[in-house]
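User: Teach me something about this protein's shape.
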Amino acid sequence: MNFKLTTKTFLAASAVLILSACSAPEGNQDVAKLQAKKDSLVQLSGNINAEIKALENQLIELTGNEEMVAVSAITLQPRTFKHYFTVQGNIETDKNALVFPETQGVVKTVHVSEGQRVSKGQLLVSLDTELIQRNINEVETSYSLAKDIFERQERLWEQKIGSEVQYLEAKNRKESLEATLATLNRQAGMGMVTAPFAGIVDEVVPKVGEMASPMAHVARVVSLNEMYLKAAVSENYAGRVQEGMMVNVIIPGVDTLKSTIDRVGQFINPENRTFEITVALNDAKSLKPNMYAALEINDILRDSVITLPSSMIQEDFEGRNYVYVLSPDGAAFEVKKTFVSPGPSYQSATLIESGLKAGDMVVDKGSRKVVNGEKVVLEAASSAISAMTK
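Assistant: First, the predicted structure itself:
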């Protein structure tokens, strides 16, 4: 008598049975009926797997040949798990100033050119202040005379010569001219436009002979020494973002910098439900204000934990996560279905909160072909593979 029933034949028959059981439910079936059908299918699946295993054992007994599936496995080792989330930011600087004249006048001299480095207080543009200068010269002449008269009147008054009224009039005349002279000098100074801080002249607007006005800027001065990145972070991360946290600043096409969070805003914007954070950018000479940047924030850092490639974690009919762990059994290995509790994932790696430990051998290649309790063999090079040791 030839034994011709094979596992594949049984699987085909079982598939037909399952497909017939999974036929589309009537539109009027309620949740209870659907749940009952699901439970019956889960039970049927378990029964099928058990019968497959029994048939395989019978085949082994009849033929004396045990054809075992070859799988690969990774050996788990503790490692550091880092999780990042990304937000968009904008590079800014507080030293980006439009410089305006304080008075109206004709541009007499432009002292700098675009791209030139300047120091704080350095003269940028001079306006024509000839009329004011004439008034200053006239007042200086009158002031010199008033000062001389006051000094003489003061000496006489100290000797009790002359009247007090004469002394007070001379004093008042001198002080009045001093105030007028100070005002005129201040007005003349308004025609001298200077740099508010040390930096680079990024823009020069007027040309010699044009009219300048307090309503229009004449230059832009920018300093790149104190730049920072400002980003808006979702309120969902409010409890996980703190000052001093490490971040990666990614500027497309330029560079990737490492820095820390300097400031965390205490106000949630009601319009977009975000709060602001600020990251210092020291020695970032290649950056410019208003450049776009992506900010990677390390919100989870755990040492000596178990992680797995996310693709290795499977889910059963009841929504439970599991992997297959190998247990030595002579020259082969026995497959054990092991339930796990996955945590957060980052870059295709998932943190395993519970269910696995260091040294466990988890089935990688071939995990979709095995069942719980099955005997398997390792592929030639798989025993040397070690998980997540990079």
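Now, about its shape. The chain has four helices and 23 strands. Residues 93 and 227 are 5 Å apart (CA to CA). If you'd like, I can walk through any region in more detail.
User: That's plenty for now, thanks!
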